[in-house]
Amino acid sequence: MLPVPRVELRLALPFVLLAAPSAFAQVATPVTLSELSVQGRGDPGGGSLTVPSVAAQRAAVNATVGSVAFVDATEFQNRYANTLRDVLKDTPGVFVQERYGQEMRLSVRGSGIARGFHLRGLELLQDGIPLNLADGSADFYQIDPLALRSIEVYKGGNALTFGATTLGGAINFVTPTARTAFAPNILRLDGGSFGTIRENFQVSRISGPVDFLINGTVTNSDGYRDHETQRTRNFNANLGYALAPGIETRFYAGVYLTDQKLPGTLSLFNALNNPTLASPSAITGNQSRKVETERIANRTSFALDVGKLDIDTWAIHKSLYHPIFQVIDQDGWTYGISPHWAGTFDVAGYRNDTILGLRASAGQNSALQFVNIAGQRGGQTLKALQSASNYEIYGENRFWFLPDLALMTGAKAFSSNRTYSNKGGFPANPRAQFANATYEGLNPKIGLLWQPLPEIQVFGDITRSRDVPDFSDLAQQNILRTTFVPLAAQRAWTYEAGTRGRIDRLAWDVTLYRSELRDELINFSINPGLNIPAATFNAPRTRHQGVEAAVSLDVARDLTGHGDTLGVSQIWTHNDFRFIADPVFGDNRIAGIPRDVLRTVVTYAHPSGFYLAPSVDWVPQGAFADHANTLRVPGYALVNVQTGIDFKNGVSLFLNARNLADTRYVSDVSVVTNAAATMGGAASLAAFYPGNGRSVFGGIRAGF
Which stretch is the leader sequence (predicted)? Predict the structure, then answer.
């Protein structure tokens, strides 16, 4: 049910209104706006104090004043889901596109636009606890779709519930506990094209006040292209213990090992005509990315007379061996602590919901570089130390001055420091360099939520965001040396209005937004073919605006008289990202992301468990490859089909055929400033990632 009723909180019912770690945060996409959920074992709510039930998470989302989305793992648990694209492709406003293996472009509202690697402008969390490193950068490799119970997407300033105020917002990946797991034991085997095979297991148990869960996934794939072999090993575990009535602690541990060969970028001609090729420099340099990440975290929750207090702590160790144009060899730690209180109480007889939080995080990273000799270390070229620290305080308040109308206000104050020490002393990098930059600010938020009917909401809000540059932006690399560039923080005002709800067979989630930016952090590649990290500059004025829309309709019910259904859903993300009176690029479009991304899905489901879901992914016009707007990649349409059957005994069989027409297309671009002005012209520019050709994947899953 959409409204969250006023209930006096007691120790015995701490999670009825408070879905920690985000008290008031997710909303379903049209296909999940109903109260459908699958409960785990254990207490009747299917959750516990540290991790509420999926139903409680779903209920909490509907009080959010702004655009958010909620994805229940029931939507993909019995499907082939290998990457973040597979679990987020039906979420409007989220642009996620594969490059190769687990490497993707992930952007919300143009966050990190033109960023050719890693992630910027978007916070990733697992179980409400940050995954980003202390400087704000993040990777996707530790996110295992087979180890998820739900996904919460908070677009833009709506992520303030976590203390996040970047342009893109935050995505929280919630893993199962023994109380929310689908079954005590799960075994899964799937695979298919490109020599792909994947094994997954999950075991969970509850014993009195103790519960634990262990999940592991092993993936091996040769990849669609030459030199794209991928080997990953992901392990997640959590252990919960009810220390006393109203007090619970939960430990999380994860180990994530990735060994990914990098095929690099191709010319536009080769991307469309010889897409399985690898870049010559990728072969000669044996380019790859080997990442070893270990993560440990804890949440301890206290149910109070009013509200609930969560205290999160975490530590992340990451080791990177990355031969590209040079061998990048890094090793670092990130650690942090965050207390977070959320509660509901009366103010002069009116209901009031409040969130208060603090976050402190810091980390150091040893950054070494060497000459790349066929993937091995040659002579050293860089020895640097990167240090980052962040201190944040935030709050959000929702005051229901009418039964169906709430005023939301909030703000975050922060101070972030970036310190860089280049030791120098090498022929290619003889001079030492020490630099220090501190970024401070206050990001306010105000909005209204109107709920005229139980399942219809209308909202509007204004938020302020700031994106602090990470070390990939600040420590810029060219062929000769690494130099610290003191960039300004990106700042923006975002205005959004939208509605979500359901009327009988029709469900919708539609948001319009506009962001007016100053000093946007814009990337461009110096030489994409050599895989040199992109340079970054501050664009004086830019504008991001667009539409995030998803509509679903139950076209027919009881087609055969046995309770079967036929439904159709349409997802549309419209992106209009531009420079504004830029001294170099005028009012050109910012390159990297296509203007329109559409996805249509038709789903037939039978009560026996059989389903069939053909779909079309359509990009009418491809993205610009350069900020000068001299070169645009072609649009494309991909036809896919997904089918399977879920048996009542917990066994599921599934099959997923993708790009049935074997369409040749460009999935992503390594952006440059001016393609026509590059050496050899646009025809020789190697800046394009070809999309995967026709593929078929299938598997079996058993829960018991």
Answer: 1-25
Which residues span the domain enclosing 444?
30-703
pTM, rounded to two decimals: 0.92
Look at residues 313, 366, 353 and name the one whose alpha carbon lies nearest to residue 449.
353
State pLDDT tens for residues 241-282.
999 999 999 999 999 999 999 999 999 999 999 999 999 999
| Alpha carbon 318 to chain centroid, angstroms | 19
The first and second tokens of residue 360, run together, are 């402190």
Enter the tokens of residue 657: 């055929």
Question: Residue 678 belongs to a domain with what CATH number?
Answer: 2.40.170.20
Q: How far apart are CA 104 and CA 119, in angstroms?
A: 9
Burial, 680: exposed, middle or buried (Cβ in 10 Å; 0-12, 13-18, 19+)?
exposed
| DSSP-derived pairing of the beta strands 169-174 and 123-126 | parallel
Q: What's the half-sphere exposure (Cβ side, CA atoms, 13 Å) at 488?
A: 12
- DSSP-assigned beta bridge partners for residue 194: none
User: Is the separation of the CB atoms in 76 and 84 below 8 Å?
Assistant: no
Residue 8 lies in a domain: no
So what's the pLDDT on residue 631?
96
Please enumerate in sequence order all residues whose Cβ is within 8 A of that of 517, keeping only pairs 6 or more positions apart, or say none.
167, 490, 491, 492, 539, 541, 542, 543, 544
- The rounded distance, in Å, linking the Cα atoms of 536 and 467 is 13
Which of 190, 272, 266, 195 is closest to 229 using CA atoms? 195
**Does residue 25 form part of some domain?**
no
Beta strand pairing call for 475-477 and 456-467: unpaired
Within a domain: 345: yes
pLDDT tens digits for range 183-222: 999 999 999 999 999 999 999 999 999 999 999 999 999 9
Residue 315: exposed, middle, or buried by beta-carbon count in 10 A (0-12, 13-18, 19+)? middle
φ, ψ of residue 88 in degrees (nearest 5): -120, 0
Residue 502 structure tokens: 């359901």
Residue 2 lies in a domain: no
Q: How far is CA 151 from CA 1, 69, 384, 394, in A?
A: 19, 8, 36, 23
Q: What distance in Å separates the CA atoms of residue 92 and residue 597, rounded to the nearest whole number?
A: 9
Burial group, residue 12, by CB count within 10 angstroms (0-12, 13-18, 19+): exposed
For 8-32, the pLDDT digits (tens) are 323 232 322 223 333 333 333 343 3
Q: Does position 42 have pLDDT exceeding 70, yes or no?
A: no
* Contact between residue 428 and residue 381 where contact means Cβ atoms under 8 Å apart: yes
Instruction: Give me the number of domains the chain comprises.
Output: 1
